[in-house]
Amino acid sequence: TLRYGIRVAMVGGFNAIYLIPVYATSGGEQSALEGITLSNVPDESKALMAATVAAYVSFGAAMFLLYREFAWFTERKHRFMSRPRPDNYTVYVAGIPLDLQSDDALLDYFRQVFSYDAVVDARVAIDIPTLDKLVVERELLSNKLEHAINVLNVTGERPRHNKLSKKRCISGGETVDSIEDWTAKLDKLNDDISKRIDDISRNNSPDGPAFRNDLELALSKSIAYQGAHKQQHLLVADTPPLSLDHGSVNGEISVAAATAGGDSTVLGFEGTAMYNNASVFHGPSHDAILEHPCEGDFIDEESKSNTNDKGGSLKTPLRAVSGIASMTTGIASMTTKTAFKSVEGATGFATSGVMAASKLVLGGEDGTVRDAGFVSFSTLKARASAVQMLHHPAPFTMHVSAAPLPKDIFWGNVGLTHKAQQIGLLVAFALTALLCLFWTLIVAFVTSLGEVEKLTELLPFLKDWLEKAPWLNMFLAQLQPLLLVVLVSLLPPILTAFAKREGHISETALSASLFSKLSIFLLIQLFFVKMISGSIFDSLQDMIENPTDIPKFLAESVPKQATSFMQYVIVQTVLNLGFEIIRVGPIVTAWIRGKFGPNLTEKERETPWMGLTPISVAPEFDFADVQANLILYYMIMFVYSVLAPITIFVMGGAFLLFSMCYRHQLFFVYSTENDSGGLLFVHFARLVVACMIFAEITLMGVLLLQKGAVAGPAMLPLIIITVLFNMYMKQQHYRVTENMPSILCVEEDVSNIGEIDLDFVKGEFLQPALQTRYLQPDNLSSLGSSSKPEESLKYFTPDNSQAEEVANS
Question: What is the CA radius of gyration of the chain?
Fold first, then answer.
């Protein structure tokens, strides 16, 4: 985007070579910088045609260069999408139907759509709020324990602390050994977390005792079977009773599938999620299950005793499985045959049965399956096909989109209902609109302070100050752009808070939303409001005295705002790049972290603490904030490259400085982990074209206000050309950047045969809380690992650490 800005500025500089002399010698009465703007050209002057010609050159070149940039970007985007990254081989599936809400059911569905080998993994998100809290608590406790061990290794003294009083929840009373106390607590947390993970895994594992998976998979397969054989009716044969062994479903269920010719086939499964040619319906009707889901006392004493440490139930699926099995046995014994007269009836039974079983099995807090998940493929072709395929007739059901990197996922938003997302979008839009209205008043007021004379009129005491200290004139002249820069710096965190309400599942999606909001916000506030309010304030008195000359005043005032915009660009560029190069923020943050944070070992010194990051940790580049400010720069350049040609040199210099600075920073300072492969470029291109159209309309309006009988209407074909260019780009250019073409996918897949290992994607989209059963500090093994403290210190601490220095001394 910066290279594009430099090239457009070069074309504008070519136009300025002849525009500046034309404007300066056209016979106007303006002086200084205003003498080389369009406002210096008299009404009905032939010199107005020079502006029209320059507009065709500038905007024509801008469209051509954008077209070329798209070709360059598309090639590199496809190259980026072919990299062996987890997100390039994975899709996000939202709105998963109930019969597919398990890892194996979702995996089997996509394997039926493609092939067995094409799909390598499927993970349905699970609601685990309690486990998430325990994992966070365990990580904090592990960090405390690791630091306590470092204190022992460095000082030779075992740290102690006052144990928290359970009754009063305050510190006091018994003083305990920190390492022993925290080690015991960590072991207890590890056991609790491991048990919870086992329960959740068992509930969602096809080989475990979770009846829900067996029922879901069987019913979903039966629906598919009956859809293919509409003339067949499933008959439930006499079924032997099911037996439970520690909560598992044992025994084989037999089904006679009667065909039109009277043949029957016995189908069976044994506590498994694998499919046969057809599956099982047992029970007389789904109404019986729905009306009496808990009839009978089927909770055994062993299940009742399965409680957590606090006396409450762990809410594992064991009791529900036992109940469902007993209930199913009772229902099956009531009848030996049940005929489904239509496919619709079977489908209704299946759906209702799955819903009832899901509620019974999942039960409580942790383990509730969400209706979203991730599916990973072994080929780029399968992944690209899955994204572009329509998977379900119902809107917003089985909606497949590109997956983000696992580290960028907001797991709390995965599986957010469509209703909640729509409400979040509406709330975010309303909050943004209210903020925009409030910000308009602030920007209009700051714009009115553009001249020192106006400030002294508003604040009379400044006259005495200026007489005593004339140097304040120069400072006050830059007060307006400084205040605008401060206002702009406040927007990103506010708009980010609004965007988070929209339910985005990843950091990249949140960044794209922030970019769009911030770009539009800056265009409205710092361009439209500033330009209009500045033009009105500059000529307000003249407009009141001569209302008939309002068009003339506006035609002269709009070009005059170029000086104010150039001041803003200079101040914003110098301040932003100055702070960027010397890295004031990271240095101050690192100093505070180094002063107050733990620093006993090299690992501690390089670890963030309480949100404070050491200078050695590479930060991530804020693409949304920087790109949004560049959109404002493009709008200023497009509008004033013809109205005030001198502006183009300031804008070109700004783009050049940004390019040199950020090129260096991206190579040597910032991390590349949040590289989205140009996700914001498509949004950027759309906004740039919109800026072109508005700039052309503005120029046409100014020419008409200056009574350019030929120059004004001559702008209309250029506007039409730009609109047609926008329509042309929307046809295919934006679309080809969203997915990798199949022809390239096949070529890449063929070249990858035997060359890549799919371990980089397997298990990557398992929720973080389910990944680590046991967590221990890295230096825990240093306790009692050697009879010689010196050897222990040397072995378990990095070079040049305080602990090693103590050992050497």
Answer: 35
Mapped onto helix, strand or coil, the DSSP state of residue 455 is: helix
CA distances from 790 to 145, 156, 778, 799 (A): 21, 11, 18, 13
In terms of C-beta density within 10 A (0-12 exposed, 13-18 middle, 19 or more buried), how is residue 186 classed?
buried
318-337 as b/e: b if 16+ CB within 10 A = bbbbbbbbbbbbebbeeeee
Q: How far is the C-alpha of 398 from the C-alpha of 101, rounded, in Å?
A: 11
- Of the chain, the end-to-end C-alpha distance in Å amounts to 57
Alpha helices, H only, 613-678: 623-643, 646-668
Contact yes or no for 635/523 (Cβ under 8 A) = yes
Sequence-distant (≥ 6) Cβ neighbours of residue 606 within 8 angstroms? 614, 616, 617
The amino acid at 108: D
Distance separating alpha carbons of residues 756 and 735, to the nearest angstrom: 28
User: How many other CB atoms are found less than 10 A from the CB of residue 234?
Assistant: 23
Residues in contact with 526: Cβ distance below 8 Å, sequence separation at least 6, in sequence order: 443, 484, 488, 568, 632
Helix (H) and strand (E) counts in the chain? 29, 11
The string of DSSP codes covering 519-556 is HHHHIIIIIIIHHHHHHHHHHHHHHHH-GGGHHHHHHH
For residue 126, the SS3 value is: strand
Burial bucket for residue 133 (CB in 10 Å: 0-12, 13-18, 19+): exposed
240 DSSP 8-state letter: P
Neighbours of 230 (CB within 10 A): 9
How far apart are alpha carbons 734 and 739 in whole angstroms?
Answer: 10
**Cα(128)–Cα(192) distance, integer angstroms:** 14
Phi then psi dihedrals of residue 120, to 5 deg: -105, -20
Question: Which residue in 567, 763, 794 sits closest to 89, CA to CA?
Answer: 763
Q: To 10 degrees, what angle do helices 789-796 and 129-155 make?
A: 130
pLDDT digits 0-9 by tens, 477-507: 677 778 888 888 899 999 999 999 999 999 9
Asked if residue 134 has pLDDT above 90, the reply is yes
Mean pLDDT across 378-400:
94
Q: How far is CA 649 from the centre of its chain?
A: 36
Query: Distance between CA atoms of 687 and 699, rounded to whole angstroms?
Result: 18
Closest CA to 737 of 805, 681, 689: 681
For 73, residues 6+ apart whose C-beta sits below 8 A from its C-beta are 678, 681, 737
What confidence tens digit (pLDDT) does each residue in 627-654 have?
999 999 999 999 999 999 999 999 999 9
Residue type, 600: L
What is the C-alpha separation between 516 and 623, in angstroms, rounded? 12
DSSP letters spanning 675-700:
--SSHHHHHHHHHHHHHHHHHHHHHH
User: Contact at 8 Å (CB) between 733 and 73?
Assistant: no
β-pairing, 248-250 vs 119-127, is: unpaired
Distances from the Cα of 14 to the Cα of 644, 653, 704, angstroms:
13, 15, 25
Q: Print burial letters for 189-199: b (CB count within 10 Å at least 16), e (below 16).
A: bbebbeebbeb
Q: Do 658 and 630 form a contact (C-beta atoms < 8 A)? A: yes
CB 210 within 8 A of CB 204: yes
Which residue is it, tokens 């010196």?
A: 790
**Alpha-helical regions (H) of 710-753:** 716-736, 742-752
- pTM score of the predicted model: 0.73
| CB distance 439 to 525 below 8 Å | yes
Q: Look up residue 147 and give its two tokens.
A: 């630091």
Given a contact cutoff of 8 angstroms between Cβ atoms, the answer to whether 540 and 455 are in contact is no
DSSP percent split of the chain into helix, strand, coil, nearest 5: 65, 10, 30
pLDDT in tens, 569-591: 998 999 999 999 998 889 999 99
Token pair 């899955």 is found at 386
CA distances from 10 to 16, 18, 654, 674 (A): 10, 14, 12, 32
